[in-house]
């Protein structure tokens, strides 16, 4: 049934508002209108005596993990990491120089390397330039250099110490991560640390920075790993005082 509404409002006259003695008699609805009236009635009737339903907004609990504070000896740890970086740089330069003399074709190809959990060095092929045989040869040559192997292991250990000493908020944000001997090889390419920077560092040089590699590939810490790191820091501090 279509209903047309006229928005014009006609003011009733005074005569129409006067009392009348004519009695009001209800008019019965036709059968069609009765059916329509039934359809318009609500399906449920609200009784004020009933308890009104309580509507509460949904609440979402968000837990935020901030991370550990920076260790008091962070400056000393950072200094040791810097020294390890310089030692590794010299050892890697010596290795590349010897490689150029003995295997110039291999030296001209782009390669990386890292330290595995057992302390062995592992060749990396970031540019997909090395064949399987070249990877095997490079692995053998890397591990044959005792100076490079020692410097790389020292750098790994001081890197783990540096991350553990830093805070999870502010500064370099290194403390947001959990760097271990087990995940170091999947996180840090040691050769990428020494990509020439130049006056205007390239994107490759910036990506090779220790902090940037950690940000891109590092394993984020958890409340459990964070608690373990803080406990180890406290234990170390206590042992040093004894």
Report on this structure.
By secondary structure, this protein is mainly α. The chain has a domain at 74-241. Helices cover 47% and strands 3% of the residues. Strands 1-2 form a two-stranded antiparallel sheet. Helix 3 (74-102) runs antiparallel to helix 6. The radius of gyration is 39 Å and the shape is globular. The N and C termini lie far apart (94 Å). The model is unreliable at 1-17 and 35-48 (pLDDT under 50).
Short description:
The chain is mainly α and 242 residues long.
Q: Give the radius of gyration.
A: 39 Å
Query: DSSP helix count?
Result: 9
| Alpha-beta content class | mainly alpha
Major sheet: size, sense and barrel closure? Answer: 2 strands, antiparallel
Looking across the biggest beta sheet, what order are the strands in?
A: 1-2
Order of helices and strands: HHHHEEHHHHH
Gross morphology is: globular
Low-confidence stretches: 1-17, 35-48
Q: Total strand count, please? A: 2
How would you classify the quaternary structure?
Answer: single chain
The portion of residues forming beta strands comes to under 5%
The residue-averaged pLDDT reads 81
Distance between the termini: 94 Å
Helix content: 40-55%
């Amino acid at each position: 049934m279509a209903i047309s509404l006229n928005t014009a409002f006609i003011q009733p006259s005074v005569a129409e508002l006067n009392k009348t003695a004519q009695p009001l008699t209800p008019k019965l609805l036709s059968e069609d209108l009765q059916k329509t009236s039934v359809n318009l009635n609500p399906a449920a009737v609200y009784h004020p005596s009933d308890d009104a339903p309580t509507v509460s907004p949904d609440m979402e609990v968000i837990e935020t993990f901030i991370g550990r504070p920076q260790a008091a000896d962070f400056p000393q740890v950072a200094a040791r990491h810097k020294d390890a970086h310089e030692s590794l740089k010299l050892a890697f330069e010596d290795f590349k120089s010897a490689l150029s003399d003995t295997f110039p074709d291999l030296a001209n190809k782009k390669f990386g390397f890292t330290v595995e959990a057992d302390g062995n060095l592992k060749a990396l092929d970031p540019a997909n330039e090395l064949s399987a045989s070249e990877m095997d040869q490079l692995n053998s040559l890397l591990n044959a250099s005792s100076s490079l192997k020692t410097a790389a292991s020292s750098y790994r250990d001081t890197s783990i110490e540096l991350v553990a000493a830093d805070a999870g908020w502010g500064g370099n944000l290194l403390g947001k991560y959990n760097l271990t001997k087990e995940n170091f090889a999947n996180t840090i390419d040691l050769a990428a640390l020494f990509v020439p920077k130049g006056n205007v560092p390239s994107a490759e040089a910036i990506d090779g920075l220790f902090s940037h590699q950690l940000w891109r590939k590092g394993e984020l810490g958890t409340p459990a790993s964070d608690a373990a790191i803080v406990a180890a820091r406290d234990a170390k501090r206590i042992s040093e005082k004894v």
